[in-house]
Specification:
Number of domains: 4
Structural class: alpha+beta
Distance between the termini: 70 Å
Radius of gyration: 29 Å
Shape: flat
Helix content: 25-40%
Strand content: 15-25%
CATH superfamily of the largest domain: Histidine kinase-like ATPase, C-terminal domain
Number of strands: 23
CATH architecture of the largest domain: 2-Layer Sandwich
Number of helices: 23
Length: 679
């Protein structure tokens, strides 16, 4: 006790003025990068590109730029160029250094805080490019303006030399080349698909802009893309709906200004069951919505109900359509431009300007009312779609209540196939969803019964992309999963009632396994989204191979790892040697070998390397499955994290939707990249 008091006294004594640390310049960014870019994961890494591109987009919205080029270079470098006015390079009267150096080294310094440089921009810029500089191992700024080319280089936010001219130029613009800092980021690998999707999106949102994208990385095939869309967000809506049968052929569109703000909305209904609403403020995507989304949804619900009542499409005795009803099958883009956007958080996830709610509600409400009146057939199709959604909602509610009521009456009787764990503490309990009875049998025998539960699935579950909730709940596999989780489904889902805090999808490492995994991910994304966002969902990583030499066995989770182990067992020769014969076997071959073959194998065991390819979890014995995949001390699992809901939504609809053409194109494009295909 005396020691504790002494320690406390020493700590208190040490806390004085000298204990206060003042971080200068860009130090706060390097100390707490998550405050500025959200995270140091892949999401934060890509955010560096978005911040630099946003500056070029702002130039385009101001009428000074028509082209942006993004190039992934060798050695982890990224180059972003625009043909705007170029960042000013003259001496800044406050900082006493070049304006270029000021923008790149001072937080909250830039041309978007006043002075008339920009009418609208993506928010508190000047933070953006300086943060990119702070989080880059190396950055080079090349500016073309005033008839010259100006250059300055940085290392981890610190200028190496002063800004200097290096040549003449007849053009204007800015080129930022940077290399993300390996000391900051968890990964330095850029996702080509994510970059294409984001830049394609920006092209839709910015009229008159051309964006070029190129991949020049080592060990990557050289690629070039160019985006230009005449139709703007109308073309964007059409693109998002390309895999669906639409209800209104004519895409609704409005673009109006009000009180120095601009509201642009496009929408179209399809025969699907999911809503795709993307919101932007000054071309910055707001995944968490904001005031403009609230205004849009309020006006949408009110307008459709008002029109339906006026046309007697909804009877007096019927209830009004809910917001959920009118948004089923909706594809909408909301894009607002305003002079002083107020975002919640540095990553601009949610727009906070309260006045924009009124503007969107007024402009969209009036224009959509006129659209419905001018297009009666399409209006009737929209209302019929919404009314059908209401009927399905009531049916789903009844079905859901029936399931839960049955469970309650039976004392929450769990599915017969569920091998539950003994623990009743959700925080330590795990549920493994496995493919088939064979894998389920191995998992049940190999698990730790205290905290690991096993739920085998029979075949492929229902494709929930094309099924209503009432049909889903009639499916035994899905119904069993809902009851096992114990937390309800959809809008009634309650994380507080979840029986297992770790849900693990464990499927075979083949094409069928990947298909089942995709179906399950679709199910969880659509109807248990809180599990994904809260980080409760995982994917198990079973090994692909067992490599054995003598009594020594190792497991490989990839072909690269397999080759490395073979090289190790072969004494440095990855192809094997005279002292190490490499033999590849299926698991079934080892089980059916004759006694003579087994005797011969033992004789050669000291020199032969046996490679066993696991085509399914059922080929592993319980001990192997525990050792490689289920033991918390040795297993490898991937946590499911949906970083970009819009991208995930588009991918799910393409791969799981009713339209064959996009899926066929995807398969043909990626066919040569398929691995672990069992025929």
């Amino acid at each position: 006790m005396a020691d504790k008091k002494l320690n406390k006294k020493n700590i208190e004594a040490a806390y004085d003025a000298e204990s206060i640390t003042v971080l200068e310049g860009l130090e706060p960014v390097r100390k707490r990068p998550g405050m500025y870019i959200g995270s140091t994961s892949s999401t934060g890494l890509h955010h560096l590109i978005w911040e630099v591109v946003d500056n070029g987009i702002d130039e385009a919205m101001a009428g000074h730029a028509t082209q942006i080029a993004v190039t992934l270079l060798a050695n982890g470098l990224v180059e972003v160029a625009d043909n705007g006015r170029g960042i000013p390079v003259g001496m800044h009267k406050v900082t006493k250094v070049s304006a270029l150096e000021t923008v790149l080294t001072k937080l909250h310094a830039g041309g978007k805080f006043g002075g008339g440089g920009y009418k609208v921009s993506g928010g508190l810029h000047g933070v953006g490019v300086s943060v990119v500089n702070a989080l880059s191992e190396y950055l080079k700024a090349e500016v073309r303006r005033e008839g010259k080319v100006w250059l300055q280089e940085y290392e981890r936010g610190q200028p190496l030399k002063k800004v200097k001219p290096i040549g003449n130029s007849k053009t204007t613009g800015t080129i930022i080349t940077f290399k993300p800092d390996a000391q900051i980021f968890e990964t330095l690998e850029f996702n080509w698909g994510a970059i294409l999707d984001r830049l394609r999106q920006q092209t839709y949102l910015t009229k008159g802009i051309t964006i070029k994208v190129a991949d020049r990385r080592e060990k990557h095939r050289a690629k070039n893309y160019k985006f230009y869309f005449e139709g703007g967000i109308k073309a964007y809506v059409k693109s998002l709906n390309r895999s669906n049968q639409v209800k209104n052929e004519t895409i609704f569109y409005v673009d109006k200004e009000i009180n120095d703000s601009r509201v642009e909305v496009a929408l179209q209904y399809n025969d699907g069951f999911n809503e795709t609403t993307l919101a932007f403020a000054n071309n910055i995507i707001n995944p968490d919505g904001g005031a403009h989304v609230v205004g849009f949804r309020t006006a949408l619900t009110r307008t459709i109900n008002s029109y339906a009542r006026s046309q007697n499409l909804i009877k007096e005795k019927d209830e009004n359509l809910t917001g959920e009803d009118v948004r089923e099958g909706l594809t909408a883009i909301i894009s607002v431009k305003l002079t002083n956007p107020q975002f919640e958080g540095q990553t601009k996830g949610k727009l906070g300007n309260t006045e924009i709610k009124t503007y969107v509600e007024q402009i969209f409400g009036d224009s959509f009312t006129a659209f419905l009146q001018e297009n009666p057939r399409q209006a009737e199709a929209i209302v019929a779609k919404c009314f059908l959604s209401a009927q399905a909602r009531i049916a789903a509610r009844t079905a859901r209540a029936s399931i839960l009521r049955k469970g309650a009456l039976e004392g929450m009787t769990l599915p017969g196939k569920l091998a539950d764990c003994s623990s009743r503490k959700p925080e330590e309990s795990e549920l493994y969803i496995v493919e088939g009875d064979s894998a389920g049998g191995s998992a049940k025998q190999g698990r730790d019964r205290k905290f690991q539960a096993i739920l085998p699935l029979r075949g492929k579950i229902l494709n929930v992309e094309r099924a209503r909730l009432d049909k889903m709940l009639a499916n035994n596999e899905i119904k069993n999963l809902v009851i096992a989780l114990g937390a309800n489904i959809d809008d009634q889902f309650d994380l507080g009632k979840l029986r297992y805090h770790r849900i693990v999808i464990m499927t075979d490492a083949d094409v069928d396994g990947a298909h089942i995994r995709t179906l399950l991910l679709t199910l969880f994304y659509r109807h248990f989204n809180a599990l994904v966002t809260n980080g409760n969902l995982y994917i198990a990583q079973p090994p692909l191979y067992q490599i054995k030499k003598g009594v020594t066995a190792k497991y490989a989770y990839s072909d690269e790892e397999k080759n490395k182990i073979i090289k190790e067992f072969s004494g440095g020769d990855s192809a094997g040697s005279a002292q190490a014969e490499v033999v590849e076997l299926d698991a079934s071959e080892e089980e059916t070998a004759t006694e003579e073959e087994k005797t011969q194998a033992k004789a050669k065991a000291s020199v032969r390397i046996n490679i066993q390819r696991y085509k399914g979890l059922g080929e592993m014995n319980p001990e192997q499955l525990w050792e490689t995949t289920m033991n918390p001390e040795t297993r490898v699992m991937k946590q499911v994290n949906v970083d970009d809901a819009a991208l995930a939504n588009e991918t799910f609809e393409m791969l799981m939707g009713a339209d064959v053409a996009p899926r066929k194109h995807f398969i043909q494009t990626h066919a040569r990249k398929v691995e672990n295909l069992d025929i």
